[in-house]
């Protein structure tokens, strides 16, 4: 999840991990990965904080639409965010490309009305997102959601990247990969991976720790310490079970 101008990404680092798996036993294991589509619901051109029966009806339609996408097997995780300017919610789709779910996501009544807008980016992340929630719902029945706060870190391209070159750059890249894989292996983070086409957002990590722990661990990344990536942290409210390893 490095700045693309420096020719790296976590997907590329994943290939590096596979190629070095037998050469370096100190490298944390690479989890099984798959393609998702990561979505952001943000304030649309007709957003308002006002309350009205019409907006209540629109919100009800929005929630019903999310439920339909989940029942159809496209949506595997969703939940609101409030601390990031303009962003209102996060969506994770089981899909190979944004084009597969763009029309579906834009059928949301709140999106059609202009109250919300949606951005979609391919995301390469660990397998199993949403599986625990589906199993939990089947076991406990509808209405059994237990909402929890998870901490999302965005890894952004630094406006002033380091001038590391050669062996020093390779070492930093390798340290970044080891750091991300270590977070996943330890369970402090349950999902992490690169985004494609998201501007200066290179990737994201979802922590299951508290905010201070997430912030401290995210900034311990060698790519953050070198100044090649900057870290942005915010809370995400989602159902227990949507992240791998939860049920």
TrEMBL record:
InterPro entries: Dimeric_a/b-barrel, YCII. This is YCII-related domain-containing protein. Residues 53-122 form the YCII-related domain. The lineage of its organism: Bacteria, Candidatus Eiseniibacteriota. The keyword Cell inner membrane does not apply. The keyword DNA repair does not apply. Belongs to the YciI family. Keywords: Signal. It comes from Eiseniibacteriota bacterium. Transmembrane segments: none annotated. Residues 1-23 form the signal peptide.
């Amino acid at each position: 999840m490095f700045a693309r101008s420096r020719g790296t990404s976590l997907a590329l680092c994943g290939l590096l991990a596979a190629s070095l798996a037998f050469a370096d036993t100190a490298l944390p294991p690479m989890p099984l990965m798959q393609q998702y589509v990561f979505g952001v619901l943000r304030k649309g051109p007709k957003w308002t904080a006002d309350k009205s029966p019409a907006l209540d009806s629109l919100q009800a339609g929005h929630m019903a639409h999310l439920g339909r996408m989940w029942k159809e097997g496209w949506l595997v995780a969703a939940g609101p965010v409030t601390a990031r300017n303009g962003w209102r919610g996060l969506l994770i789709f089981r899909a190979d490309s944004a084009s597969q779910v763009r029309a579906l996501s834009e059928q949301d009544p709140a999106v059609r009305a202009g109250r919300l807008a949606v951005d979609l980016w391919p995301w390469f992340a660990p397998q199993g997102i949403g599986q625990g929630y589906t199993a939990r719902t089947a076991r406990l029945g509808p209405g059994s959601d237990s909402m929890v706060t998870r901490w999302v870190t965005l890894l952004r391209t630094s406006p002033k990247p380091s001038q590391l070159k050669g062996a020093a750059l390779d070492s930093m890249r390798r340290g970044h990969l080891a750091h991300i894989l270590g977070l996943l292996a330890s369970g402090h983070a349950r999902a992490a991976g690169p985004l494609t086409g998201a501007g200066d957002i290179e990737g994201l990590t979802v922590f299951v720790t508290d905010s201070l722990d997430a912030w401290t661990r995210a900034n311990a990344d060698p790519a953050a310490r070198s100044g090649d990536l900057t870290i942005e942290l915010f809370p995400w409210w989602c159902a227990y079970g949507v992240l791998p390893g939860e049920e």
